[in-house]
Amino acid sequence: MPRGFLLLAALLLPVAPALAGDGSTTTDSVDLTRLLAPPPAAGSPAALADLQAVLAAQAARTAAGDEAAKADSDRSVFRFADVLGPDLTAATLPRTAAFFKRVEQLDKASVKLAKSDWKHPRPSEVSDQVHPLSVEKPGDWSYPSGHATFGYTTAVLLANMLPEKRAAIFDRAALYAHHRVVMGVHFPSDVEAGRIAGTVIAAQLLQDPLWHADFVAARDELRKSLALQPANDR
Predict the structure, then answer these.
(1) What is the pLDDT of residues 2-40, one digit of tens each?
(2) Are 114 and 107 contacting, i.e. CB atoms less than 8 angstroms apart?
(3) Ordered DSSP codes for 139-190
(4) Less packed terminus of the chain by CB within 10 Å, N or C?
């Protein structure tokens, strides 16, 4: 079945609520194994190209680039502060912080299911020529990239909160995701899968009434902090 059809079908499916540990309702994790193509097979031309891309990024590293990539290991909406402004902090934006923490938890659950299904090895496990800038947790597989998923889920949601800044937000998400390749902990195919996964997850959340109030609260808080006109809809 074509990937585009699968994505469309996913967006048309109702989002099923689940009961959280505190008794509240929350959205179930998204079954990404039904939406994403499998990772490149070991030894295939696509897998070899993936590895060469990681090695090329490694060869092009600079001290400043390494530090930026390491900083983006933080899975937080506040990594977007460099395109949204210095006032984007957890201390000044508690509703925004809480909303995107909830997003992070959903992303992690969805990605964990997919990683456990495909068990795709990290670049350094494929080649001893790869020298990653961080040590990942044992058993935390490569495909799809959780950071890229979060980066793009966050970008779609932020772009809907702040459409005036859409281009800068998506540029930042692309860099955030690419930094995983610079780090040597993900292949480009992992990052691309994360881009698709994050887009699908965000699209579902934008339709989910269980997330609407928190989305609106975060959006209104952000827009006020950035001195933007209030949004017209609620």
Answers:
(1) 444 344 444 434 444 433 333 333 557 899 999 999 999
(2) no
(3) T---SS-HHHHHHHHHHHHHHHH-GGGHHHHHHHHHHHHHHHHHTTS--HHH
(4) N
HSE toward the beta carbon, residue 185, CA cutoff 13 A: 22
Higher pLDDT, 231 or 147: 147
* Phi, psi for residue 69 in degrees, rounded to 5: -65, -40
36, 193 contact by CB (below 8 A): yes
Q: Which residues lie across from 19 on neighbouring strands?
A: 25
CA-to-CA dists, residue 96 to 16, 103, 168, 222, 223, angstroms: 24, 11, 19, 7, 11
Tokens at residue 7, please? 């994505």
CB 28, CB 15: distance < 8 Å: yes
For the record, the structure tokens of 81 come out as: 């502060």
Q: Residue 27: what pLDDT?
A: 56
Collapsing DSSP states into helix, strand and coil, what is residue 227? coil
- CATH assignment of 62-225? 1.20.144.10
* Torsion angle defined by CA atoms of residues 188, 108, 12 and 178, in that order, rounded to the nearest 10 degrees: -20
State the SS3 of 46-114: HHHHHHHHHHHHHHCCCHHHHHHHHHCCCCCHHHHHHHHCCCCCCCCCHHHHHHHHHHHHHHHHHHHHH
Name the residue ranges covered by the structural domains of the chain: 62-225
Q: Give per-residue pLDDT as tens, 118-155.
A: 999 999 999 999 999 999 888 899 999 999 999 999 99
| Strands 25-27 vs 17-19: parallel, antiparallel or unpaired | antiparallel
